[in-house]
Write a structure and sequence with these properties.
The structure holds three protein chains of three kinds.
Chain A: H1 8-17, E1 55-60, E2 69-75, E3 78-84, H2 97-100, H3 102-106, E4 116-119, E5 122-125, H4 128-139, E6 147-151, H5 156-168, E7 174-176, H6 183-193, E8 199-200, E9 207-211, H7 222-234, E10 242-247, H8 252-255, E11 259-262, H9 268-281, H10 288-294, H11 299-306, H12 310-322, E12 326-330, H13 332-335, H14 340-353, E13 361-362, H15 379-390, E14 396-400, H16 404-407, H17 414-418, E15 423-428, H18 433-436, E16 440-443, E17 452-454, E18 463-468, H19 482-498, H20 504-514, H21 527-537, E19 539-542, E20 573-578, H22 592-596, E21 610-612, H23 614-620, E22 626-632, E23 635-643, E24 651-655, E25 694-704, E26 726-728
Parallel strand pairs in A: 6-7, 6-14, 9-10, 9-12, 10-11, 14-15, 15-16, 20-24, 21-23
Antiparallel strand pairs in A: 1-2, 2-3, 4-5, 4-16, 8-13, 17-18, 18-19, 20-25, 21-24, 22-23, 22-25
Chain B: H1 3-8, E1 29-34, H2 43-52, H3 58-63, E2 72-76, E3 90-94, H4 103-107, E4 113-115, E5 121-123, H5 133-137, E6 144-145, E7 177-178, H6 184-196, H7 209-213, E8 219-223, H8 230-237, H9 248-251, E9 260-261, E10 273-276, E11 278-280
Parallel strand pairs in B: 1-10
Antiparallel strand pairs in B: 1-8, 2-3, 4-5, 6-7, 9-10
Chain C: H1 10-19, H2 26-52, H3 67-78, H4 80-91, H5 101-122, H6 148-181, H7 186-194, H8 202-235, H9 247-273, H10 282-312, H11 316-327, H12 331-343, H13 351-354, H14 357-384, H15 400-423, H16 429-449
Helix pairs in contact in C: 2-15, 3-5, 3-9, 3-14, 4-5, 4-8, 4-9, 5-6, 5-15, 6-7, 6-8, 8-9, 9-10, 9-14, 11-12, 12-14
The chains are: A alpha/beta, B alpha+beta, C mainly alpha.
Chain lengths: ~750, ~280, ~450
């Protein structure tokens, strides 16, 4: 619902000095009685602000890294709601629940409001001048090797600026750490297809075979994939797409599958080989090396190893053979093992065998500015940082957009090692677990009040650069944008080079205008016109961006799959830390809408739980609401049990994202944090933390609680009524549908 | 209405919908929800919280069944005793079905809930005295009562968070009933815009918050009276008629091959939301 | 069996009854004190609930009704026996009712007043309760005349005002007696004012009789309708367990049942507290007990009819609900309700228990427990197992606030009742005199014809 009356002139006014000093009356930020706010009469108001009329600004959602474009609804100077920006090829006007909650990140009452300096156990509010002076002082005489800069995934000009800053101090230790990222799949894709993140066309596939890729939930770019999925269900050439999901714990994608197959944890690759073998048996031409590689994987053996019946393997093979093109995806559940890379490679091989490469898997568009491309990371990088910290290598540690104290496996002892760094600066919106360990906490603007550019890792169609712009005045006067902070820091070193940039906004504007033509602007366009149009769209589409061709080969050399792990007598169960679509790695847990938004599978809210298969639960005498102790080699958590049939009987699952000891009132003290008990096992090829490799045992504590969930006492039963019926595809006529 | 009209022609003020004598014109808002597209992701529900100032009640109150989610996603399993849910789950977004002959409307002692000429089951918060009879009589149990005074409850809308409240939607105090309104504030804006321009609301001009967010576009909302609207065409394609308590297609021998159905049609509330059944591939 | 002496002097009747206005037994004060304390509990709970919200009662969505509505029906039901005794039996010329109808009538009034309070207690926004009244207003906003709840409000209001009128009119001759016999003081002034100058002239008696009879005739259909309308609250809805055609007679039978049981309880208490042994005789008790037994059988029949229609009907939801009542969370209460309502009354079948005061006292309390549970079992299980399985809720349990207010309502009723009995004659003096006179006339007649042995067995 873009307000069409809104014109560029208004934009100019907002952005020309909107970022600077216009006091927005009616914000309610301060009490008029206190005299803290300038009262601006509505009789003579700024002409871009009409009481009761909403205006809409485009920006980019920063709740996850998918890079959905958003349109904020702003009324009387306050952002009220975020909608998808229909112009973006990524989300096409749609949003997920996580994105909707972006406003709660912005208005969150637990945000840090001023720079805090540690004095003993408490924090003392200080001024920015003092904070910068302190950083300058601490950095004085410190060599670049003694500084580490830890960040989450980042891209765009912020990454450029950070790079420049690290250059200026001679530091090469930019550690990018994403707690939950498809790092193994990226590496496997690089091998199989030549690119880390190819473009996936679910909407063109007739069959999607997904090995634990939760593309409707939390995998890579879920809003984009959800739209593709909807098209896929509507039909490709009039044939409704078929989704087969193979995983050990049902994800929301699995819940939407036509056939969901439970597989013994870690044997996804074996099953992929089994399917290739079955395809060969059914007459699909396999190249000699592949045929040789899968020769041993006849369906009986595979069935025995994976727990998937031979008949089912044949059915899948038949379906894949009959309906082309198809698409095979490897996701988090397949990669979370010590042989995760092998699993992913074996699964990717299926796409080569089925001839999907180039059809449903294509080269993605690339942004022709490599310096702006997203820096992705994994736990391997964190491990090195952790080791270096333990060795006392760093005098200064910066941390931005990462919370390793919460997300690193407890056995890595990151918290203790972090303490060994001389001076720790954390840029944070909240006092999260990592910020609590800092010596200096610098408060950040929320993404809804900040400037920036973002390059999504997954490019939907053409390449695009997303624009972040403030949707309203800063809520708290003492917060600052990360870009502004970096600019200030860099000025400590190279004042001369950066003196013409008053702030990050001017830096950004200059940077974009410099490259106007490459960014799609007409060569003779007025700077202001180009700038305003760019902001108005919220997206820079790069028309000339080249598509790199997929180069990977279906090499099977070096691909060897281990036999399924035998059951550990002491720790007989496999812990699957599940990724909830809205809470993910826990950075958004303090947004109450997300806490109260029921988990789609269990409908549980506000708490953690352990999923266990009813047959296993019966064996152990566990019923719903029993508090069980889940103990692994590295510690234990106590958590309520939920009986869930969508999980392998030899596995249990605890969702990530809850169990905060800090962060804020809506997060602290709710649930448990399974990161803390993970076994520290890494994927052999990429060094990524193998999230699913943890073995645990469980025991009842004797305590019981009532599980707080939305479903009633009869659970997901309809009691013989026609509430949510389903039809088999051969009994339905979809031809006349609108 | 005076006392005399009350006794003389009260029925003119009280139609039993759907009616033939005074059909909805020019608007009848309705929905179609494709359950084969719905992935159960909850985006609609969160969007509803954002748009309609729904309070987050917190763990304790949620445990007591006092959640205020106007839009709730229900998750059903196959009930044939299989060991694993190998055909997935079924998700159902459930909100007020905006019944034409709404059981809630007739029982409200003060007429706080009633039918608008657009076919929306409206709720007048100011008029509600909190007898909760409407909820007691709702077959879908989609009405939510303010058991507490959420605006003054700690951590529901603490400072700053309250700035997000949508000024177009009332913040409800304790003791009133509330429910999905089909985002009537958006409908009203669109109607007013259309009126000032001397036209009718165009199809797609107004979206509900849930529809706008839905990543799989499973929700269609629009004017059922307009023969060109998507929602009308969907209802027509599925052969679901608003004023039937049993659809002709379902009475045919062997049932229907169409997916459209309405929940509890047999109770004769004539709901305005048509669902389209989830499909499962039979070849796999 | 001992009955009221036929040769008792009229002055003696006056003296005995008026004595109840002066010095009851100590137990009176104990009961009054306990009742006031109970009211205190309820007031505390209500103030808390009013300020914080109904959530403190531990309701939820969709379990939106609870003990308040159940207890509301209970008190409405309680009110029926007064009308039964005073109006129906009056028309039927059952003269044994005469010593006890006054307090039964008072019971009607006070239980209605208690029930009325529950309407207010139940509302989410009680401060807007006047919205439910059809008062003329400029905005022409009317209540919804389709709503059974509105019929309810009207029926109760009509019934309450008629009952008060009936109680008052029936008291006028007695008030005059009080006026004439009291020592000067505030009470004498009160009686003087409200006796409306009654002097017992022929003309006054004639007008009085006609008025009394008219109101009695008016009240009977009201009594039947008021509980039928309360039944409509449920029967007119569309929910399983509620949408049952037989509900109105079932409710009326239940109402008479619990009312009669309550009369037995109060009969026993009043008899002791106000030393009315002379007037509230065992013979009367026996008659009420027999009446109660008969009504209990009617209720049992209608109850079984309800089960049978559900069982043999084709409404799966209603059938499921019935099974849930018998086997689910509410099963203990449901079985207790059936036991108390249909099995316990058989004790009243035995002659030797019919006048056994401790047994009858316990039985009457058990019957009312059963009848209260019946109301609860009508209201709550439908929420726990309604149509929509997703929202079924088997764990909802009323909080102390709900229980406190229900508990206090018994105190409120007792308090009003006890205060009434202390201020107004709870035995109708003039009707007892009539009864004694008629009986002695009849005895004389019989003795004259030699048909009656001189044992003085009571008429009827």
């Amino acid at each position: 619902m873009m307000n069409s009356d809104f014109d560029r002139r208004d934009f100019l006014k907002v952005l020309g000095w909107g970022g600077a000093s216009v006091a927005l009356a009616g914000c309610g930020n301060g009490m008029v009685e206190n005299g803290k706010e300038t009262v601006v009469s509505y009789v003579e108001t700024n002409d871009y602000m009409i009481p009761s009329i909403s205006v809409y600004f485009n920006s980019t959602c920063a709740q996850c890294d998918a890079g959905c474009s958003i349109t904020g609804r702003i009324r009387e100077g306050r952002v009220l709601k975020l909608e998808g920006n229909p112009e973006s090829a990524i989300n096409r006007g749609k949003t997920c629940g996580l994105g909707q909650a972006g406003v709660q990140n912005h208005y969150n009452p637990d945000r840090v409001r001023s720079p805090l300096l540690r004095t003993g156990d408490s924090g003392e509010a200080i001024t920015w001048e003092k904070a910068y002076a302190l950083i300058g002082e601490k950095m004085h005489g410190v060599s670049g090797d003694e500084v580490a800069f830890l960040t989450g995934g980042m891209s765009g000009h912020l990454k450029v600026l950070l790079g420049n800053y690290l250059d200026s101090i001679g530091c090469k230790n930019h550690v990018v750490y994403e707690a939950i990222a498809p790092a193994v799949v990226r590496a496997a894709n690089k091998k199989s297809y030549g690119v880390e993140m190819p473009r996936i066309n679910i909407n063109r596939a007739k069959v999607v075979l997904s090995f634990g890729a939760d593309f409707l939930g939390a995998w890579v770019s879920p809003v984009h994939f959800s739209q593709q999925y909807a098209q896929f269900r509507k039909g490709v050439d009039g044939q409704r797409g078929v989704l087969v999901q193979i995983e050990s714990k049902m994800t929301i994608t699995g819940a939407n599958a036509d056939r969901w197959l439970v597989v013994r944890p870690g044997t996804e690759g074996i099953l992929a080989f089994g399917i290739i073998n079955a395809l060969g048996t059914q007459g699909l031409k396999l190249s000699a090396d592949i045929a040789a590689a899968v020769k041993a994987y006849d369906k009986e053996r595979v069935s025995k190893d994976t727990g998937v019946s031979a008949e089912q393997i044949d059915k899948i093979a038949a379906l894949l053979k009959a309906r082309t093109p198809s698409l095979v995806l490897a996701g988090g559940a397949a990669e979370g093992y010590a042989h995760g890379s092998q699993n992913a490679a074996a699964i990717n091989l299926l796409n080569h065998v089925l001839g999907n490469v180039g059809k449903t898997i294509e080269a993605a568009a690339v942004v022709p500015f490599p310096q702006m491309e997203p820096a992705t990371g994994n736990t391997a990088a964190l491990k090195k940082l952790n080791d270096d910290l333990a060795a006392g290598k760093y005098k200064v540690l910066f941390s931005y957009a990462a919370n390793p104290v919460f997300t690193a496996p407890g056995a890595m002892k990151f918290k203790e090692n972090m303490a060994k760094a001389g001076f720790k600066v954390v840029f944070a919106q909240y006092l999260d677990e990592t910020a609590l360990q800092a010596d200096l906490v610098l408060p950040l603007n929320s993404p809804l009040e900040d400037w920036g550019t973002q390059v999504p890792e997954y490019m939907a169609e053409g390449a695009q650069i997303n624009i972040l712009q403030p949707l309203m005045e800063k809520l708290h006067p003492e917060t600052s944008g990360m870009g502004d902070i970096l600019l200030a820091l860099i000025k400590q070193r190279r004042a001369e080079d950066y003196k013409k940039f008053d702030d990050y906004y001017s830096y950004l504007r200059t940077a974009l205008l410099q490259n106007k033509v490459a960014l799609g602007g007409a060569g003779n366009a007025d700077d202001d016109v180009f700038w305003n149009e760019t902001l108005s769209r919220g997206i820079i589409k790069l028309p000339g961006a080249t598509h790199a061709a997929l180069s990977g080969k279906s090499a099977v050399a070096g691909l060897s799959l281990p036999a399924p792990a035998s059951i550990d007598a002491q720790y007989p169960l496999q812990l699957i830390p599940s990724v909830n679509a809205s809470l993910r790695d826990g950075r958004n847990t303090n947004q109450p809408w997300l806490q109260e938004s029921p988990d789609p599978m269990t409908t549980i809210v506000w708490d953690s739980w352990m999923e266990i298969h009813p047959s296993k639960a019966a064996e152990l005498g566990i019923s719903e609401g029993d508090i069980v102790e889940v103990a692994g080699k590295n510690g234990s958590v106590k958590v309520q049990a939920y009986l869930f049939s969508g999980i392998h009987p030899d596995a249990i699952s605890i969702p990530l994202g809850r169990g905060h000891e800090a962060l804020g009132r809506y997060a602290k003290g709710y649930g448990v944090n399974p990161f803390q008990i993970l076994d520290v096992v890494f994927d052999k090829e990429t060094g990524e933390l193998a999230l699913h490799e943890t073995r645990v045992k469980i025991s009842k504590t004797g305590e019981r609680v009532i599980v707080v969930k939305d479903e009633g006492p009869v659970g997901g039963r309809q009691m013989g009524q026609k509430i949510a019926p389903k039809l088999p595809s051969d009994k339905v006529n979809l031809s006349g549908e609108i | 209405m005076s006392i005399s009209t009350l006794f003389e022609n009260y029925s003119e003020y009280r139609h039993i919908h759907p009616v033939d004598d005074v059909p909805h014109n020019p608007y009848k808002w309705a929905m179609a929800i494709d359950l084969d597209a719905c992935s159960g992701c909850n985006a609609c529900s969160v969007a509803c919280y954002a748009e309609n100032n729904l309070p987050v009640v917190g763990r304790e109150k949620f445990a007591h069944g006092q959640a205020m989610h106007w839009m709730r996603i229900e998750r059903y399993w196959d009930e044939d005793g299989r060991e694993f849910p190998d055909q997935g789950a079924r998700f159902l977004p459930m909100m007020c079905q905006q019944c034409e002959a709404a059981p809630c409307e007739t029982v409200c002692p003060v007429g706080a809930t009633n039918h608008t000429p657009d076919g929306i089951n409206s709720q007048i918060y100011n008029r509600c005295i909190g007898s909760r009879y409407c909820s007691a009589n709702c077959p879908y149990k989609v009405r939510y009562f303010n058991w507490w005074d959420y605006p003054t409850t700690d951590n529901v809308w603490p400072a700053e968070m309250n700035q997000q409240l949508n000024p177009d939607v009332t913040v409800r105090g304790k003791g009133v009933m509330e429910k999905c309104t089909f985002c009537i504030q958006r409908v009203t804006v669109a109607k007013n815009d259309a009126k000032t321009q001397g036209r009718l609301v165009r199809d797609g001009e107004v979206q509900t918050a849930c529809q706008q967010a839905c990543p799989t576009s499973a929700i269609t909302f629009g004017n059922l009276v307009d023969p060109n609207s998507t929602v009308h065409r969907k209802w027509q394609a599925q052969q679901v008629e608003l004023d039937k308590d049993e659809q002709t297609k379902d009475m045919a021998e062997g049932g229907s091959e169409l997916r459209g159905y309405r929940i509890y049609e047999q109770l004769r509330p004539f709901p305005s939301v048509m669902y389209m059944e989830r499909v499962r591939e039979s070849a796999i | 069996m001992k009955d009221i002496r036929e040769d008792i002097a009229w002055a003696q009747i006056n003296k005995d009854v008026l004595k109840s206005l002066e010095n009851p037994r100590k137990l009176y004060w104990v009961i009054l004190f306990i009742a006031i304390a109970m009211v205190g509990v309820a007031v505390g709970c209500e103030v808390y609930q009013y300020n914080v919200g109904l959530g403190v009662g531990n309701f939820d969505n969709p379990h939106v009704w609870g003990l308040y509505i159940a207890t509301f029906i209970f008190w409405i039901g309680m009110s029926h026996s007064g009308t039964l005794l005073s109006a129906i039996l009056h028309l039927m010329h059952a003269d044994w009712r005469k010593p006890i109808y006054r307090f039964a009538e008072a019971m009607t009034t006070f239980s209605l007043m208690t029930a009325g309070l529950f309407v207010a207690v139940h509302l989410g926004r009680v401060w807007q309760i006047y919205f439910a009244l059809p008062y003329p207003n400029m905005r022409q906003v009317w209540p919804n005349f389709q709503s059974p709840l509105l019929w309810d409000a009207m029926a109760i209001f009509t019934y309450l005002s008629s009952s008060i009128l009936f109680l008052y009119v029936g008291m006028i001759p007695d008030l005059a007696i009080c006026r004439d016999n009291m020592h000067p003081g505030w009470r004498k002034k009160l009686y003087t004012a409200i006796a409306l100058g009654w002097e017992g002239t022929d003309r006054q008696w004639r007008n009085f009789r006609i008025t009394y009879l008219t109101i009695a005739c008016f009240l009977i259909p009201l009594a039947v309708s008021v509980h039928s309308i309360v039944a409509s609250d449920f029967a007119m809805s569309q929910q399983p367990g509620w949408h049952i055609t037989s509900f109105p007679p079932y409710f009326v039978a239940g109402a008479l049942y619990s009312g009669c049981a309550a009369i037995i309880t109060l009969f026993i208490i009043l008899r002791y507290v106000f030393k009315f042994e002379e007037y509230m005789t065992m013979s009367i008790l026996k008659k009420i007990v027999r009446l109660t037994f008969a009504i209990s059988m009617v209720w049992t029949y209608l109850n079984l009819v309800e089960y049978a229609t559900v069982w043999y009907g084709h409404d799966e939801a209603a059938k499921h609900l019935l099974i849930q009542k018998a086997t689910g969370t509410y099963a203990p209460f449901w079985w207790t309700m059936n036991f108390c309502g249909s099995v316990v009354p058989f004790i009243m079948f035995f002659k030797r228990f019919q006048t056994h005061i401790p047994v009858m006292f316990s039985v009457s309390l058990l019957l009312n427990l059963g009848m209260w549970l019946e109301r609860w079992m009508i209201v709550s299980p439908t929420f726990a197992d309604g149509y929509y399985p997703w929202t079924w809720d088997h764990d909802q349990w009323p909080s102390f606030v709900q229980w406190g207010i229900v508990f206090g309502s018994f105190g409120w009723f007792t308090m009003l009742f006890m205060i009434f009995c202390k201020i107004f004659p709870s035995v109708s003096m003039y009707e007892v005199k009539e009864m004694v006179y008629h009986r002695s006339q009849a005895t004389k007649k019989l003795q004259a014809t030699g048909k009656l042995a001189a044992t003085g067995k009571g008429a009827h």
